[in-house]
Amino acid sequence: MEIKKNRIYTLQSIFTMAHRNLLKTLHNPDHLMDVLIQPIMFMILFGYLFGGAIAGGVHAYLPIIVPGILIQTILSAASGSGTQIKEDMETGVFDRFKSLPIARIAPLAGQLLADILRLVIAIIASLTTGYFMGWRPNVAFGWIIVIILLSVFTGWAISWIYVFIGLMAKSATMVESISLMTMLLLSFLSNAFIPIDTLPKILQIIANLNPMTHVITAIRQILATESFSNTAWIVLLFDLGIVIVFAPLAVWTYNRQS
Fold this sequence. Notes:
Elements: H1 2-27, H2 29-55, H3 58-90, H4 93-98, H5 106-132, H6 141-168, H7 172-188, H8 201-209, H9 211-225, H10 230-257
Helix pairs in contact: 1-2, 1-5, 2-3, 2-5, 3-5, 3-6, 3-7, 3-9, 5-6, 6-9, 6-10, 9-10
C-alpha cells in the first residue's frame, strides 16, 4: 500500500512539473517560437522561395519540404529541453525544487513529459501549414497518425541527448549555441530540402550518414507506400537505442547535480 502511495505521489509530482514547464513555454516568446512560430515561418518561407527553383512550383515541392520541415521542427523543439533545464539550474529554481515535498526525479521527468506535448504541437503546426499551402497526402488518416507518432518518438529520444548536454554544459547560452549548430547541420546536410544527388560527392556521403536523412526518408516512404518500411523500423530501433544510452546518462548526471 505504501509503495502504491509513493508511486501515485511521484506521478502527481511529475504531472505538476510537466504542467509548469508547459506554462513556461506558453509564456516565454523564445520557447513558444520554437514549437509554433518557427515551423509555420520556415514552411512558408522555404516553400515559396525554393519551390519554383527546385521542383518547378510550390505544390510539386511540398511532398519534399513537408517531411523536411517536420524533422527540422522536432530538432528545434527537442533542443529546448536542454536549454530549459540549464536555465532552471542557473536561476536557482532547481535549488528551490530540492526544498519542496516532491519526488526527486519530478523536475527532470516533468520536463521530458512536457516535451512530448511540445513536440505534438510543433508537428501539428508543420503539417497544418503544409496543408493550407496545398499539401495533400495520398494516404489514410491513420498513416498520418503513424508519422506523427514516429516523429514524436524521434524528437523525444533526441530530447534526452539535449537534456544530457544541458546538464553538462556551463551555461544556457552554450546549450542554445550547440542546439542551433546541430539543428542547422542535421537539417541542411540531409535530404530535407533538396535531392542528395545534387550535392557534391563529399556532401553526399555526409548527407547519407546523417540520421535525419533516414528519418525523412522513412516518412516519405510511409506517405508513398502506406506501409511501415524497413527504413522506418531502423529509425524506430535507432531512436530506442538513443533512449537506452542517453536516458540513464541524463538521470545519473541529474542525480549527481541535484
